[in-house]
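Thread: quick sanity check before group meeting

JM: Hey all, I'm pulling together slides for Thursday and realized we never actually wrote out the predicted structure for the chain we discussed last week. Dropping the sequence here so it's in one place. If anyone has concerns about the input, flag it before I start.
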Amino acid sequence: MLTLYSYPPLFGVADNNGYGLKVFAFLKLAGVPFKHEHIFDASNAPRGQLPYIVDGEHRVGDSDTIIAHVSRKYGVTLDAALSPARRTTNLLITRTLDDLYWVMSYSRWKDGRYWHQFRDALKREHPSLTDEGLMKAKEFNAQRYYYQGIGRFEPEAAMARGIADLAALATLIPPHGYVHGDKPTEIDAAIYGFIANIYFYEIETPLKQFVISHGGLAEHCRAIHAAVSI
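JM (edit): ok, ran it. Output follows.
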């Protein structure tokens, strides 16, 4: 059976990282059986990043590469009816989520207004974590943010960038239903991976305040959450 390796849960979602939760939701919506192993150590992962899957002889990393592999091997048809224009829209949404990822991560590991609450929540839900280990992770992430660019932003400017991403997503999600109609597709799983890690996050960041205040985003998140929690 396929095994998904990803970060552990937090605040009631199956993975506290948007990419791992995206793959989890995709596998659930696609009806592909899998085991889910929660880990912090990514040293055995392709490219040294989570999530990744082990599927027989295949070890596959990167969320989009995982989804492509699973779709081919298991004949997943979630996107079978999509037009080329809608597939292009999906790519643009995916790249917007990639940008949002950095702001979400910044809000947890770098923004001094929320870091201590995030640290304490991780320690509460995962007692094996130590202050020393978390500080090393914080320092490592600070380097990543600096070289990516978001780390050169002041907190308010960083949050404004994330809110702009969320505002763009909000215009694409209908008040009821999913991005491309009455049934969820791959892009709905991707959006859920990130929005759930904001909506269910128990720390009141500007990102969470925006999602809560925009009913379409929140309703979409709740609908996918219900579908993948079965």
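AS: nice. DSSP finds nine helices and four strands in the chain. The mean pLDDT is 96.
JM: adding both to the slides.
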